[in-house]
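Backbones bend. Shown next:

***
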Amino acid sequence: MKTHIVHRIQVILVGMLILMSPTPGDAQTAKIKMGSSLSPPSLESITPYVAIEKGIFKKLGLDVEVVEFRGDAVHTKALLSGDIDVTINMGATQGIVSASKKAPIRLWVVANPTTPYHFVARKEAGTTLKALIGKNVAVSGIGAISYHIPRIVLERSGIDPDKLNYVAVGSPADRFKALIAGKVDATVVTNTEVAKLVDYPEIIDLVNVPKVVPEIPYEFGMAREDYIQKNADTLYKLAKGIIEANRWILANKAGTIEVAKKILPEESAEVLSRAYDLADKSLWGVNGDISEASYNFTAEFLKKVGYLETPLPYKQFFDRRFVDRALKELGRK
């Protein structure tokens, strides 16, 4: 009898140990702190949130937390200091400039290979780009991407960009407010702001920027060189997750709006729906990469305007191993 009781106790203890032990899946789960330069986020930067909310990262054995920063500068510092493991929504130009200035970071995936920008203007200022000559264009700062984008658009449209006046106003939201108030004549905004133009008939959408300048990318995924060397398999899974999330976004408008409403409760479902429809479908990178030609165009442009002296060559900047491995499994679209 005593032996039987002891045996039962042993069986119970073994069972408890089995239940308490981590499962193989748990043991393989990698915890990742993934940085984003947008706080709050936007519909255009929704990819990592979709990958989390729809369980895409989880099925790949990844426990991902998005850490939001206000702007690229503080985001880059956090990456370099090791406060975060990788970035996903870092401004593409920031990534190129930082790496070219010897920061030990490299590109591992491209979330958004084109921009979400539109060049908009007050109807009274002019209904064509040529009519904006001599008018005021709001930018976040002289030399910022919101300064260069309209200049490239104008130049490609045969208009001298120096014939317009550029006024430093601030963030996209600040520029949009200044435009509505009639303090400026034109500016560059994102799909989300354009989606609100139904309430502002005095403002018109002149140019969908990626239709004119498709080469310039929007957001990059960057990582430190030392992290890349030690975590190749994790980066492959992350790249695969980002690609799968982007493909899901393009195939599931209603689901994407549902996720967007969760992370952007202040935006109406109607605005988010219109913003989704306005986005150039190349915005969400279904292959997670950027062509060498697009990279070289952007890098040479940054050199031309004085942001850097010697761009890092494409093959040194972009560690394609993780994207290429993912595409070998998923197929290229």
About this structure: Residues 11-27 have pLDDT under 50 and may be disordered. The chain has two domains: 26-114+216-330, 117-211. Strands lie at 30-36, 62-68, 86-91, 105-112, 117-122, 136-139, 165-168, 186-190, 203-208, 219-224. The first helix runs from residue 2 to 20.
